[in-house]
## 1
Amino acid sequence: MKSKLLLIGSLAGIGAIGAMTLMAGSINEKEAERVALNQTPVVAEVDKNKSEEWERYYPRQYSSWKKTKESSDIEDLIEKKPQLAILWAGYGFAKDYNSPRGHYYAVQDNVNTLRTGAPIDDKSGPMPTACWTCKSPDVPRLMERDGENEYFTGKWSRYGSEVVNSVGCADCHDSETAELAISRPYVDRALLAAGLPTFKDSTHQEKRSLVCAQCHSEYYFKKTRYVGKDGIEKTANVVTFPWAEGLTAENMEKYYDDINFKDWTHKISKAPMIKAQHPGYEIASTGIHAQKGVACADCHMPYTQEGAVKYSDHQIQNPLNTMDRSCMPCHRESEEKLKGIVKQKFDRKEFLMEIAMDNLAKAHLETGKAMELGATDDELEAIRTGIRHAQWRWDYSIASHGSFFHAPEETLKLLASANEIAQQSRLKLVRVLAKYDAINFSAPDFSTKENAQKLAGVPLQKLIDAKMEFKATLEKAWYKEAVQKGNLNMESREGVDEESSYFKK
Ligand code: HEC
Ligand code: HEC
Ligand code: HEC
Ligand code: HEC
């Protein structure tokens, strides 16, 4: 209780200094607010996963949080960049991959993506429970209820009626004090492994980024043996950040190589691949803003003045929509000029990214051709290792979407490195193809989503049909059950399921 009051009090104080003037009316307003907050009970443990339960105490944060719903556009990135289907052949991402939208949609987009398949019960489907991990405050609730290892065991569908509230208050805040908090134990483990201070020992400014790092980071599923409460030995897929060697792409590549880790074997080239997830926190850390101490929240959750009250805008979105509050407190250039600079950075990234994707896609297809003609694993080993490293660096540099702005030099460096390694692999491939009389081989056309997915062996229509069946049956049952169990208020799903890459209502 006390620390919550202190927190609100100090924020009101900062607001007052910022405004430099204090009118009598606003003092009274503040006083009234203090009194109201004084009577505020903590958000009940059973309800903390439901963000609407926080509304009555924090109406401004709640209503701005809810506006993440406004960022609803879906962009089918495989349609836009068909090479992606080749690069991810044999892996879920070749089926369906869209640009990110507001936090409001995190759970629904996870349910809708063709990657999570069409389970028919709590034991079927392609994905493990770990796929829910960065979508919902229900996840820490389940980790507490079932134990962390148990949470990370079994199929994704197992928690369909449990993980139903999208990224919300309890993901980033302690429900008793409202202070910033991390709700996933693997973050502290990763910080410790990297030799960094844990969340508790970090500065306040660093915490304003670390709450985002819970989800906007690189991770893999670490197979972990444990004995369950029922006495049976099981294997958990525990979300783990590969930070023990350091937080750069090269450090993590070494980490994965040293433990011989692969996410999948590429369907066309048989290369042992690593999928970069979304190392947004790590790559942003190398950029000028982070190095000058600017936190994620400074740009994505700018302070907003409402009457005398100052609060953090919880409508996390593209900060170019809020430049007056996100950028202008620090920059003197005009908004137009800054926007132009950002656009230039985007175009430079696109240029190198296109070349990298083209080289990588061709390297996979040329390797596939060499195999067809009889090339041996020995002949292809160095080539496959090259493809693994080149694709990791390409993926790492762009997977978090904002990196071209957060850390332009690092992004371009990684893309240059991806291109260099992919080119070296293709030079080696020329020799192998020559040996098998195919020096004139040129990769088949992958310039449309249809062609690329065909080459990647993705049965798109079949996947969509199964998914629609799942949506009409099991998914509906999940929400019904969730309401019965008290996990979900149906109103919080309003307008959440209007669109995906394969349907529009
Ligand atoms: C993705 C993380 C995240 C989520 C989700 C989130 N917050 Fe916050 N919240 C923050 C950050 C970062 C701050 C800034 C804290 C600071 O600097 O002390 C903040 C600040 C606050 C504050 C302090 C006053 C202020 O506005 O700066 C309150 C109260 C608060 N949030 C309530 C909520 C409520 C209620 C929800 C759910 C409707 C919510 N938050 C969801 C990250 C989050
Ligand atoms: C509990 C996990 C989680 C946390 C914590 C989290 N995010 Fe996210 N974030 C996501 C997911 C998942 C998506 C993609 C949602 C979708 O596409 O449906 C996303 C999307 C975004 C987007 C894209 C929004 C848009 O409108 O396109 C931005 C920007 C973003 N997050 C920034 C942040 C920042 C800044 C923080 C910390 C203050 C943060 N996130 C904390 C999981 C999280
Ligand atoms: C200096 C301001 C600034 C800081 C600090 C910052 N961002 Fe961003 N971020 C941006 C801008 C601007 C964009 C949008 C670029 C574009 O696509 O036009 C962006 C884009 C993003 C996106 C992609 C959104 C999308 O829809 O494509 C995510 C996710 C994101 N940021 C998360 C983070 C996280 C996590 C942090 C902290 C580790 C962070 N940002 C720090 C300014 C910032
Ligand atoms: C808290 C202060 C702060 C905020 C907020 C901030 N910046 Fe910056 N920005 C800096 C600092 C510091 C630098 C480093 C250059 C310097 O020291 O002058 C910088 C550098 C830049 C650069 C040049 C660096 C490069 O990578 O080429 C651009 C472009 C930029 N900022 C755009 C933005 C945009 C767009 C936003 C809002 C989305 C924003 N900044 C928000 C402080 C800030």
## 2
Amino acid sequence: MSLNPGPGRKPSRPSSRLPAHRCAAPGCSKTVPGEVLMCYPHWRLVPRALAREVTRSWLAFSKDPFDQDARAAYNRAREQAIAGVAEHLRTRP
Ligand SMILES: [Zn+2]
């Protein structure tokens, strides 16, 4: 991986190497920092246990990006969180 932290930014934590990206919630165009998955209003919609699992698996994965199990666990948790938010938005727009 060769992520450029950009001019003037010293990577102090692994997550600070990640570029900002769009909120993962469907239809949301908010830009969020690289280390978070969704903007706060959408992240709030993720059930707490699942949100914890996303954070836990993300931390494990960011510690060892080459650990395929950690990557799979994070991807699974993330997909579930996104699906949960999508379902929430569909039933309660
Ligand atoms: Zn959002």
## 3
Amino acid sequence: MPALPEYKTRILLENHGVPLIPAVFYDVMPDILPEPAVFLKAQIPGATSRAGRGLVRRASTKEEISNGLKELLAEKNCQGVLAAEAADIKKEYYAACLLDFGNEENLPGGVLLFSPEGGTGIEGRTGSLLKIHFSLLNPPSVQDIGNELPDVPHAYELADFLQKMISTFIGYKLTVLETNPIALLAGGSHVAVDCRAEFEKHAVSKKNAYLFKVPESSVNDSTPLEKMVEAINAADPAGTGFFRASREKTPEGTITVATNLCGGGGKMLWEMATGGRDDIFSLNESDTSGGLSGFKSYRILRVIMSQPEAQVLILTGSGMAFQNQFHLASAVWKALRESPTPLPSLLRFGGTDQDKAMNLMNTVSENLPVKVKTFRPEIFPNAMVEHLEEIATDHRIKQEFIPEAGELAFEVKTPPARFVYHPEKNPEGKEPAFIKECPTGFLQWKKDRITPNPDAKCIGCLVCETLSLLEGNGELTIELGLPGEVL
Ligand code: SF4
């Protein structure tokens, strides 16, 4: 049975709302190292007992991180290394979902295995595991699972976690989904620290093939825009950035929609909203999720907006995204300002900083070249589609964006960007307020200039540029090049 490495399994879990320990995936040696302490985990499909084989190690200093990354990246069949935050864990659990072929007591379906002890050595404790059999068609509720759990702290929060695991298992038709350990953190929340999945090749749907890396065909029929997205992913591999143009001819008289769907939840809601309608045509499939940077969101949005037939853009996730929604809104705002062919947009934000995201779009919408409507996560896409007709356009706006000249302050390699400082907008040479808002401390004010902090990393969130334009004088702009021409 093919197995997915942890970094891929994390995307499946994230798409179903399972909370994960923060981690960054590196497939090459990065220029800027993550902050210690981290656990470095080699990503080798099918590898088990990684800790015993030295494929997982704790790194407490930059030197240990650097050496560990180099060594693990050189391991045979290693697809990359996950650097996961070393969290303060109060308790560990084990859980797995498996296919159950049934017996005289249970119909075929799934089985959830749970142990109130996680970590290594679970194989030797299999007899003590709690088993909850479930129907694949009618999976158990949080309440059902909570009632079965032994006496553990925060049992119903844990049941919610397990229910989302079951939803991932069923949603992707997996044969095995294991989380070991699930960590209970100091605040009472649970996160998946390590995970893996097994699947049956034939059960992978075409639209999810990119997640499982199952070749769809021996012929590479990628469109120029799809190739552009491949190049964007190669330069900025963290998180999912997926785009596939429809191969169908656009039916006459339909509203043609360019979609930016965030995660499996976003896709599912969009399909539910439009599945029975022949007056709406999705020009593309898409998925931006798994903790991608705002820089990557911007670049994928530019590709999505460049589809010549599109009349409107729709952006939605599940309503509880992992990606910070203010970072996403900053990417949307930038794409609408800079795209030569911006699209009228219906935008649904749901997740961390959703109110800040809504406020940003509402503040800037008057000065945008196209109409924009924002929606809270309580409004589902089946209500959003009722606004398509009023906002869609037959006459695409064309605009020319010329980046303002300034001083190149510095460049960042991953995620790639050029930071440009405009000293004439800061005649007194004071430290601009947005410098302190950089969430990683990467930006510093030294000798009257913006400089990068060599001990921190830029996560490509766009907060600095957004605040510079919104609350400052536009002292900083970020140039995000695209691989090749976009319409
Ligand atoms: S410099 Fe800081 S605020 Fe600006 S994009 Fe990078 S991480 Fe975000």
